[in-house]
Amino acid sequence: MSEIRIYGIRHHGPGSARSLLRALDDFAPDAILIEGPADADAMVSHVAGLKPPVALLAWVIGEPSRAAFWPFATFSPEWQALDWATRNSRPASFIDLPSSLGLARSREERTVESDPLGLLAGAAGYDDPERWWEDLVEQRDENVFDVIAEAMAAVRENGGDDEETLLREAHMRKALRTAKRAHEKIAVVCGAYHVPALTAKVKVADDNALLKQLPKVKTQLTWVPWSHGRLAASSGYGAGVRSPGWYHHLFAAPDRPVERWLTHVGAVLREHDLPTSSAHVIEGIRLADALAVLRGRPMPGLSEVQEATLAVLCEGSDLALDLVTREAIVGELLGEVPDDVPRTPFDADLTATARRLRLKQEAAEKELDLDLRKESGLARSCFLRRLRILGIDWGTPAGSSGTGTFKETWRLLWEPELSIAVVDASRWGNTVEAAAAARLLDDVGDLAGGTRG
């Protein structure tokens, strides 16, 4: 009989990720099942070459606008589970609804699940679920998975879950049953809310009947770069967190996270010519520690660190704090995907051409001045204009940088969502040049047809 351990985690939670890694080392499972699209298993083999943040991208073949992303950061427990499996040569697979089923449903049908952590935080007297979770999990080095499972069971006692949640959990149970026939020790990594559903006794026939009704479409999947900015809740991402840069730091810092963080903040401010001394950092640390003691917290959290940053390092300047929020708390890190990850010929040509022209995909806006008299400047301009013809607005013209007509200024910013535009552009040709030409010819044909009509 298989031994199964279900680890309920918070998506993109560094404390959950650390606790999960310890649990996996102790349990040493034969296989790991992870919340994610079940038809993405072929993508697991590329994990070793990826540099997060990255995302799984799935789209309906022939309709790239019908697409979905599944983002992962270094501090995401799901990513750490994938990495653990890769490092320990254990099979890992995804168990959520496959994209072929999920994308067959309309956006209205694919509802967003409620926030159970918000309910628990409110019951504990917190007005901020992130702060509650930070106190309970992110800052405690102990196994809290059993406590989380009990709490989620209490939240779900009255039922009332939406159809999307029930469908997803039926598929997770189905995948778990399949894994039990092949493995003796199984670890399941899923959102904490789903733990009670995966331990519940549900008839196989009931799950099959629920899933049988779903329509299906043909989809394709790949890995794409993602960014901390797009992991932030402010970007509109449903499972986003308020402070990806802070969470990345909490996971990566081996010790003294507050001291290391405020030192980093000081460096950010100095890069923008804002005077910040070591004395500022030391006093900021003391204030953050004092605030944590007054509030009965185990250690300073983001709220205390932000208040200390504003009062001491930023000397009360909201503009300076906005700078810290943008560059440190949220962050502008963009992940990397190697060339061996499956991609369309068009995408491969775009990547190769950008590399040849020394144009790097970056999450921070960058200004680029081009001299069109030079071969390199002209080639870059043509490349960026061809991309714009195809709806890939990596670069935006910002006028001329001088009085002559041979100069151009571009603003470059790579948004992760441009990956969908890249897929869409693939239908016009296998290279950027050929696709842009085909798109222009098609537009000219439409205009000519309209004129004749």
Which properties best describe this structure?
453 residues; alpha/beta; three-stranded antiparallel sheet; 19 helices
Query: How big a fraction of the residues is strand?
Result: 5-15%
Low-confidence segments, ≥5 residues, pLDDT <50?
none
State the end-to-end CA separation.
73 Å
Mean pLDDT: 88
Q: Specify the helix fraction band.
A: 40-55%
Oligomer: single chain
SSE pattern, N- to C-terminal: EHEEEHEHHHHHEHHEHHHHHHHEHEEHH
* Tally of helical runs: 19
Radius of gyration: 25 Å
Report on the architecture of this protein.
The protein is of the alpha/beta class. Helices cover 48% and strands 14% of the residues. Strand 3 (54-60) and strand 4 (63-72) form a beta hairpin. Helix 17 (375-389) crosses helix 19 (432-452). The longest helix has 21 residues, at 432-452.
What is the topological layout?
Layout: E1 3-9, H1 14-27, E2 31-37, E3 54-60, E4 63-72, H2 77-87, E5 92-96, H3 99-102, H4 116-123, H5 129-138, H6 145-155, H7 163-180, E6 185-191, H8 195-199, H9 204-212, E7 219-225, H10 228-231, H11 244-252, H12 257-271, H13 278-294, H14 302-313, H15 318-330, H16 345-356, E8 366-371, H17 375-389, E9 395-397, E10 407-412, H18 418-425, H19 432-452
Parallel strand pairs: 1-6, 2-5, 2-6
Antiparallel strand pairs: 3-4, 3-7, 8-10, 9-10
Helix pairs in contact: 1-2, 1-11, 4-5, 7-9, 11-15, 12-13, 12-15, 13-14, 17-19
What is the compact description of this entry?
With 453 residues, the chain is α/β, with parallel strands linked by helices. The chain contains 19 helices and ten strands.
